[in-house]
């Protein structure tokens, strides 16, 4: 039988090494941040109650990878030293558990994961869930580090962030100690916390800057060596992936995605080496994937507003004022049999789309009589947006 599958091309030695969830054997180019982290958590291995830590930096700059490495190192070190209490770390991603209540349930269930206890279900009162969490922490009779990744998604209240650091002072736990490690892409989250929570959660702050091209080359060299068969990459591929990612967001994730996608391009072409042309093709694919993912996260009307700017850009009528855009938007909403939102809401959507990197906002000030207003233009490729919205069509629009 003839099937659509290609013969296997042996470019990957271990494809998993280029997947996002892969935990690197070694952390590269983050010595300074690791030192700061070690200083912040030194008290744990010295037998004192640890400080809480707030880690921030843009997406893909190694916050999660370094935190996991630090937690492993801490657990290892505490095991290795005489007279030091055991260390348990537990990680929850607040993107998937966006309220204090949900995050607390997830933490209890993570902690119960390696015991015989049944998982908690929803329907319990907040104080029952919190008490279950204190019980789990107390049962460890040691130091428990609670890692809250993407902590800025905790959108309801500060309950968990207020209660956890005070658990010992308030007598909720006695034989254990607890510290919170909060990780965020968004520094403004810190400033929006109530002063009491800010003081405790941000006792130690560690900033992760974007990577430069040289640092990304080191990270990619390391990954490529483990992921790919030898001789697969031609000379310029890694520097090119590194330079493109450094110029854009300085994200290791973006650089690794580019490398993986470049290899895929060569494999689909049934070639045995990857070239710089493959990187060019990969850039468009990765960008399209990124746009598609972010578009999926927009509300339906957010997508209509983006489509309105896109159509205006294709007609070569951008930068455009919100007022002029409104009619295009209203027509699109009508096409989808949806009542248009108010002008004010469309303004808010334009603002959000600018913050998310879809649009560029220009502040026009024509002085007395001319007025002050914003104009918008597309900051991503129009064709890519159209393709992505067409793909998302079935699911959302
Ligand atoms: N210094 C590094 N050495 C090796 N690999 C790294 C390094 N920094 C990041 N990576 C890899 O890059 C990818 C993204 O890193 P990570 O998830 O830690 O970023 P992040 O800052 O937590 O991003 P986000 O805020 O989006 O979660 C992962 O695959 C990670 O293994």
Describe the protein in words.
The protein is α/β, with parallel strands linked by helices and 397 residues long. The protein has three domains: 177 residues, Rossmann fold, CATH 3.40.50; 85 residues, Helicase, Ruva Protein, domain 3 (Orthogonal Bundle); 95 residues, Orthogonal Bundle (Arc Repressor Mutant, subunit A). It contains 16 helices and eight strands. Strands 2-3-4-1-5 form a five-stranded parallel sheet, sandwiched between helices. A three-stranded antiparallel sheet has the order 6-8-7. Strand 3, helix 5 and strand 4 form a beta-alpha-beta unit.
Strand order of the largest sheet: 2-3-4-1-5
- Give helix % range: 40-55%
By CATH, the topology of the largest domain is: Rossmann fold
Strand content: 5-15%
Summarize the topology:
Layout (H helix, E strand, L loop, with lengths): L30 H16 L6 E4 L6 H18 L6 E7 L6 H13 L13 H14 L3 E7 L9 H5 L13 E8 L3 H5 L2 H7 L2 E4 L5 H15 L9 H12 L3 H17 L7 H22 L2 H15 L5 E2 H14 L7 H13 L3 E7 L1 H4 L1 E7 L3 H11 L5
Parallel strand pairs: 1-4, 1-5, 2-3, 3-4
Antiparallel strand pairs: 6-8, 7-8
This protein binds adenosine-5'-triphosphate (ATP).
The site of adenosine-5'-triphosphate (ATP) has 20 residues, from helix 2 and helix 10.
List keywords for this structure.
397 residues; alpha/beta; Rossmann fold; Helicase, Ruva Protein, domain 3; Arc Repressor Mutant, subunit A; five-stranded parallel β-sheet; three-stranded antiparallel β-sheet; 8 strands; binds adenosine-5'-triphosphate
């Amino acid at each position: 039988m003839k099937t659509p599958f290609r013969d296997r091309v042996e470019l990957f030695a271990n494809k998993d090494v280029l997947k996002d969830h892969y935990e690197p054997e070694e952390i590269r180019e983050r010595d300074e941040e690791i030192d700061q982290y070690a200083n912040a958590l030194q008290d744990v291995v010295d037998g004192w109650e640890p400080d809480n830590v707030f880690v921030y930096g843009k997406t893909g700059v190694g916050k999660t990878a370094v935190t996991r490495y630090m937690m492993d190192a801490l657990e290892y070190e505490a095991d290795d030293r005489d007279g030091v209490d055991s260390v348990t770390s537990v990680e929850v991603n607040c993107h998937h558990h966006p309220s204090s209540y949900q995050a607390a349930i997830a933490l209890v269930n993570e902690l119960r994961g390696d015991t015989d206890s049944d998982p908690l279900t929803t329907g319990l009162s907040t104080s029952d869930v919190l008490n279950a969490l204190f019980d789990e922490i107390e049962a460890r009779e040691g130091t428990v580090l609670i890692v809250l990744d993407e902590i800025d998604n905790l959108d309801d209240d500060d309950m968990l962030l207020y209660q956890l650091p005070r658990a010992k002072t308030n007598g909720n736990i006695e034989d254990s100690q607890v510290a919170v490690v909060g990780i965020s892409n968004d520094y403004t989250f810190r400033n929006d916390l109530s002063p009491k929570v800010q003081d405790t959660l941000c006792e130690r702050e560690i900033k992760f800057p974007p990577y430069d091209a040289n640092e990304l080359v080191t990270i990619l060299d390391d990954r490529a060596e483990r992921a790919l068969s030898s001789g697969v990459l031609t000379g310029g591929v890694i520097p090119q992936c590194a330079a493109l990612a450094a110029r854009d967001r300085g994200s290791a994730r973006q650089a690794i995605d580019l490398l993986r996608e470049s290899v895929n391009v060569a494999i689909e072409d049934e070639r045995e080496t990857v070239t710089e042309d493959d990187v060019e093709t990969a850039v468009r694919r990765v960008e399209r994937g990124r746009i598609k993912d972010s578009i999926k996260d927009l509300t339906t009307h957010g997508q209509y507003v983006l489509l309105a700017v896109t159509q205006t850009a294709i007609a070569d009528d951008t930068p455009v004022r919100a007022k002029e855009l409104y009619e295009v938007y209203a027509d699109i909403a009508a096409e989808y049999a949806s009542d248009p939102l108010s002008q004010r809401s469309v303004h808010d959507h334009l603002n959000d789309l600018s913050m998310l990197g879809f649009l560029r906002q220009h502040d026009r000030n024509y002085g007395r009589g001319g007025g002050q207003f914003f104009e918008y233009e597309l900051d991503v490729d129009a064709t890519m947006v159209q393709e992505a919205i067409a793909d998302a069509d079935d699911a959302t629009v």
